[in-house]
Amino acid sequence: MTGTAHIAVQDLTMAFGERVIQRAVTFEVARGAVFIIMGGSGSGKSTLLKHMLGLLEPAGGDVLYEGRSFTRAEPEERSRILRRVGVLYQRGALWSSMTLAENIALVLEEYTELTTEEIRELASLKLALVGLKGFEHYYPSEISGGMQKRAGLARAMALDPQILFFDEPSAGLDPVSSRRLDELILELSRSLGATVVVVTHELASLLAIGSDGVFLDGDSKTVIARGRPRDLLETCPDPRVQRFLRRGEARR
Amino acid sequence: MVAGVAYERTEGLLLVRLSGEWRLSSDRPAAEGFLPELAAQGIRRVSFDTSGLQGWDSVLLAFVSRLVTHCGAARVEVDRAQLPTGVQRLLELAEAVPERTEEVAPPRGGWLSRIGRWTYRWADVDLEFLTFLGQATLAAGKALVFRARFRRSDLAFHLQATGANALPIITLISLIVGLILAFVGALQLQQFGADIFIANLVGIAMLREMGALMTGIIMAGRTGAAFASELGTMKVTEEIDALVTFGIPPIEFLVLPRMIALCLMMPLLCTYANLLGILGGSIVGTLMGLSSELYWQQTLSALSLADLGVGLFKSAVYGILVAVSGCLRGMQASGSASAVGAAATSAVVTAIVAIIVADGLFAVVCNALGI
Lengths: 252, 371
Hints:
The complex is a heterodimer of chains A (252) and B (371). Chain A has 252 residues and is of the alpha/beta class. Chain A has a domain at 1-84 and 162-170 and 193-252: 3-Layer(aba) Sandwich (Rossmann fold). Chain A has helices at 45-52, 75-82, 100-111, 116-129, 145-156, 175-192, 203-209, 229-235, 239-245; strands at 5-16, 19-30, 34-39, 60-65, 68-69, 85-88, 163-167, 195-199, 212-217, 222-226. In chain A, α3 crosses α4 (116-129) and α3 (100-111) runs parallel beside α5. Chain A is globular. Chain B has 371 residues and is α/β, with parallel strands linked by helices. Chain B has helices at 34-39, 58-73, 85-96, 111-144, 152-162, 167-190, 198-236, 239-245, 250-287, 292-302, 305-332, 337-369; strands spanning 4-10, 13-22, 45-56, 77-79. Chain B has a 4-stranded mixed sheet with strand order 1-2-3-4. In chain B, α6 packs parallel to α9 (250-287) and α7 runs antiparallel to α12 (337-369). Chain B is elongated and about 105 Å long. The chains are: A alpha/beta (252), B alpha/beta (371). The A-B interface holds A 18, 50, 53-55, 79, 82-83, 85, 87, 89-91, 93-97, 106-107, 110-111, 155 and B 106, 149, 151, 154, 234, 237-239, 241-248.
């Protein structure tokens, strides 16, 4: 433990019943890093994310935020930690019975003492940041998938979180929208000074934005590489990692 | 067009002659004929002749791949060079990834172990149910002191959806139930010249039993299923996860307004159903030649406040049962569209069973208490 790690995962075992997904997962996410969780489909990336957020209980091991255990924390302590966390889910997961503005306002109402007018303005501002100015009164079902993702991003950042989680941010987006979302993620997280954890298998994006990462392997059911994706591409000797990072093409 | 196959043996070589159209739509020979040929003395090599082949699709592929497997088992060499190039490539593709041998599904085992697994699963389900019930109770406690976190507009929406919007169906069903009760009763009572007691029969039956029971069952089908599918869909689309990670307890935010709405609206709907049922009875009464004033007077004299109270109390309880089973099944749903459907079905079944069981208990308790 270096003491500076923002999030630490220690010897985590993830299992559904008796079926083990990953074991002995250990890594640290430094403050301000753009941390990538890589791996093939079905290797347990999203499951790992859900464990880090407390949506699934680990079969063993611990997740620590700023050195304090999250797994063993009381519900109040957990919600205190989660208050500083924003999450963008794979399909946006906007609350479908509320307009975009209400989606963001709900989070603000929950945690701040602002007046209705201030909340309304703040919600509009957050939507403007992701390029959705004027869509305040639209319902999630009335906008496109890419817009839902961006609205989800606006909601994830409603409380100016110190940690942002992204589950497959480019899933279901065309290359241009996906690139723009990547840039948006980088820009917003840099200006907030937030730590970013991204689950993705989108090569272009993970190589472009990742400053650190882990590689989960579905067959051996554990972490087989750690480090900056670009460095892994250059130096990692493991053929499984190379195959993944080079889309199955041989090393040049 | 018919697919054909013929076998020729020459000095350790088995020639498989394929002819005609090998397609899904055509008649084709079974692969079984190959085995005795292969088993013949001294066969070391199998090759193909496709000069008579006019067309092929996956059927031929499956046939050849079966032959290749048999040859592999018998350690006989297969010469594929004469096969169509497409077939060769597809076979290579199919063989490229070795078969998955790792056991994914748990072994089925005997009936004893199945019972064991089934019991374990039930234990899990019961634990989930108790956890849910506990959380819902805690949330209801918070609501009593006005500290629960949910949107007032959600409550208003559910009050309307479960209350006002249910009036048409409640009107129809209770009116008909009143008519049926009166009609069946009238046929019997007329034999004794006691027609006027139809009013007593319908009034008491509606107030004590049928009003609450019918509203409960209608709401189980109408609202319980809606709750389960709403929450189930929210579970599948990760909306509930999003609530949790924003620190908003889903039980308070989603379940509580639904429970409160149903618990408040059920007694009102039940009162309405009671009135409509009595109206239905009076229609039959009038047709039998009783004056409507007389019918109304007789109804009033037959009923007591306790009858009304019992019915209303029951209906509030049924409301909670419907809301709890709907929300519980919705929250338990996971994964897929079919899970949402299963949740809705299960919610309705659970609610109706719970209502009938509760009704039985009420009957025993009321009898013991003398009300």
